[in-house]
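Today's session is about reading a structure prediction critically. Students often jump straight to the picture, but the first step is always the sequence itself: look for stretches that repeat, for charged clusters, for runs of hydrophobic residues. Only then move on to the predicted structure, which in these notes is written as discrete structure tokens rather than atom positions. Here is the chain we will use throughout the hour.
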Amino acid sequence: MAYSDHLARALAKPFGGDDTYEILRLAFTAFNSLYRLELAWSASDPEVKLVRQIGGRSDAQTAHSGLLTNSHAPTGDAENPSYREAVELLVNEGVMYHRKHDGLEKWSKAANDNDLPGILECLYRIRCNLFHGEKSCRLVADRIRVASGARILPNVLVQIRPA
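Below is the predicted structure for this chain, in token form.
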């Protein structure tokens, strides 16, 4: 399945509940396709470097800026955040990530609302934590981060296209 197919499936899902995790999973499948198609990826490159490169693209920056400007009023619901609320969570709180092989625990945070490479790195850490077993959708704090990722990633991706 291609980039656009995964993204279309993510955007078709209703936001909330169990679908929120599926939205993030599908959006990341599309995102992985995007950076592997566009960037000179090799097994020796850390994926987080590629994630940050996509965040630095001018079309991604323009999309993010427009989404921040046009973000709906605050929802007050951390599990169904507006775009701006989702970004602010990653700026203010960030994401703890764990590496099992060496026991490293580290916080990843975006520097500010306009730091799209940092925001996408936080989303990548959420994805890694979920896919590799350090986070789950049972804990409220984890669901809030998944909801932030599900709100941000597909909305940025839909406005950029593979080269």
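Discussion point for the tutorial: The chain is about 60% helix and 5% strand.
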